[in-house]
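Quick question: what would this complex look like in 3D?
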Amino acid sequence: MAHHRLTLQQYLILAFVSVSVPLGDASLSRGMRSLPPISIAHPLTLIGAVFTPWIGLGIALLIGYFASYLTALSWADLTFVMPATALGNVFVELLAHFWLLERISWMRWAGAILITIGVGFVASGPANTTVVDGSSPGGNEGGKEVSTVGLPVRKENV
Amino acid sequence: MLATHFLFDPEFWKATSMVATIVITSSTGEVLTAAAMKSIGDLDAIRAQSGILGAIRVVVTSPLFVGGIVFMALAFFSLLFALNHMNLSLVGPAAASLTLVTNTTAAKLFLKEKVDRRRWASAALVCVGVYLLAH
């Protein structure tokens, strides 16, 4: 299994993927908790929530996350990129404790730490395991063929 | 002795249903999106050659990507609904971590990624972490 080294820019993209999700989720939580309880019988109320400031900020952060996430997926495995998101769990606990003033038990802290260790296992491995032919450090190159078994294999020469 | 009284608690099943909905829709969306990006290739290389608009055009015209977006939108509104009823510090890590496990399985089955023992060990640690987070 070949190892693919990531560039500094690619590490920065993964770092933004990690940080933007907890910040976005915290903004969404703050916005949603300032609203009255929403019943499943009135799902359209959720659409109106999108236009409140905290929900808007959360959405902006999650759009930034999504752009970075797509870029990362173009040169790394899903099973490599996904753990980068999970790394934000400890950050979520810190935000929930210090910003949203939620009470966090020691077991939940331990859970967040275990998840982080699991993420570390994945992060220490190769970034891309599906490349068929040669590729640039960190992942794919335009014009190469990749394996997406079960889905049409396609060559890109943009 | 393992306490099972929580199995008879309606709140437990309500919370489980909310998290499960987020996980299933999110995982489906992410696997479809990953398949789209794998078939497209390195976005940085495409952007260098065709510019940012060319890169955006290649992505948004992919049917797999569109399918992924639909499921991710469903996951997003499921998350909003759950956050209206539960704490972020429970919903966020539980949904994100369980999605990691389902994504690992789906990536091996559908994307044919090489999921070695290290990645499975990671999934096991995440499961224990989620158990602790839920208590």
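Answer marked as accepted. Chain B touches chain A through 67 residues (CB under 8 Å).
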